[in-house]
């Protein structure tokens, strides 16, 4: 348990938001309300940075929440890096805005970090996703690097000292394959990550992604896949050049609905 008589533990929380409409604005606000209500601020102090992509959307009027408006274009890792750099807490959480935080989630994570000093990165469970996937609630720690398994890309918490080893998040991954890159980066350095089944943060159905057309999503996914293959699978420059040329030649056909996305 955390010592309530000592200074509170500080956790920097970076949340990306795109409040394109009222529904998406309410989603971010729900995320913030549940986050701030989840822990006693005398024990854990959240210092929240919301990076809002809609510059016309007003600041989020919550205590201990700062709204940042960064220049476009959107880049998941670049925005996260800026938010991380704006804080100095010993622990950092990088989060989606489509989350619902359950009471005690952060104290459970910090307890796991305190009990295993070699643990540098962790994820909470989602009560909707993880139990059907073989990770029951309150069943211990699960060490590993499986994306959508041990690694919940929608909420990653790590010691700030991790960045001294891996550096900044790779900004070539501006959305897709960011989780996969994080997982392999940890694994390649031999850094421990665990899913903490006593810490619950539910991942709600994302509605931000639906604002992109299926053709646009397909293009961004393919581009990220080629960067991932270059970095982690040793694909040659000539191979990737051919794949990219083929991708851009096909995109107008997908965009106009003349060719099926697959």
What are the salient characteristics of this protein?
262 residues; Spore Coat Polysaccharide Biosynthesis Protein SpsA, Chain A; globular; 2 domains; alpha/beta
Question: How does the SSE layout of this entry go?
Answer:
Layout: E1 9-17, H1 22-37, E2 44-52, E3 65-68, H2 76-85, E4 91-95, E5 99-101, H3 105-115, E6 119-125, E7 141-143, E8 155-159, H4 162-166, H5 178-189, E9 192-203, H6 214-232, H7 237-255
Parallel strand pairs: 1-2, 1-4, 2-3, 6-9
Antiparallel strand pairs: 4-8, 5-9, 6-8, 7-9
Helix pairs in contact: 6-7
Structure description:
- The protein has 262 residues and is of the alpha/beta class.
- The protein is 35% helix and 22% strand.
- The protein contains 7 helices and 9 strands; from the N terminus they run βαββαββαβββααβαα.
- Strands 1, 2, 3, 4, 5, 6, 7, 8 and 9 form a 9-stranded mixed beta sheet that branches.
- Strand 1 (9-17), helix 1 and strand 2 (44-52) form a beta-alpha-beta unit.
- Helix 6 (214-232) packs antiparallel against helix 7 (237-255).
- The radius of gyration is 19 Å and the shape is globular.
């Amino acid at each position: 348990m955390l010592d309530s008589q000592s200074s509170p533990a500080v956790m920097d929380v970076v949340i990306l938001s795109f409040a394109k409409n009222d529904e998406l604005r309410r989603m971010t606000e729900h995320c913030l309300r549940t986050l701030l209500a989840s822990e006693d601020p005398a024990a854990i102090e959240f210092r929240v940075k919301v990076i809002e992509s809609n510059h016309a959307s007003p600041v989020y009027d919550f205590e201990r929440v700062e709204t940042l408006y960064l220049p476009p274009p959107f880049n998941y890792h670049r925005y996260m890096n800026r938010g991380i750099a704006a804080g100095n807490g010993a622990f950092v959480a990088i989060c989606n805005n489509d989350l619902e935080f359950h009471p005690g989630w952060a104290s459970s994570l910090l307890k796991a970090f305190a009990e295993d000093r070699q643990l540098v990165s962790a994820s909470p469970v989602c009560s909707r996703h993880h139990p059907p996937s073989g990770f029951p609630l309150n069943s211990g720690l699960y060490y590993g690097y499986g994306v959508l398994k041990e690694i919940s890309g929608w909420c990653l918490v790590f010691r700030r000292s991790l960045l001294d080893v891996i550096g900044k998040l790779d900004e070539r991954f501006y959305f897709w394959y960011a989780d996969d890159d994080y997982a392999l980066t940890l694994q390649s350095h031999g850094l421990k990550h665990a899913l903490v089944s006593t810490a619950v943060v539910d991942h709600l159905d994302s509605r931000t992604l639906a604002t992109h057309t299926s053709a646009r999503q397909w293009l961004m996914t393919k581009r990220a896949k080629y960067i991932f293959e270059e970095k982690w699978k040793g694909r040659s420059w000539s191979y990737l050049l051919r794949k990219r040329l083929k991708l851009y030649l096909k995109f107008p056909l997908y965009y106009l609905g003349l060719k099926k996305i697959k």
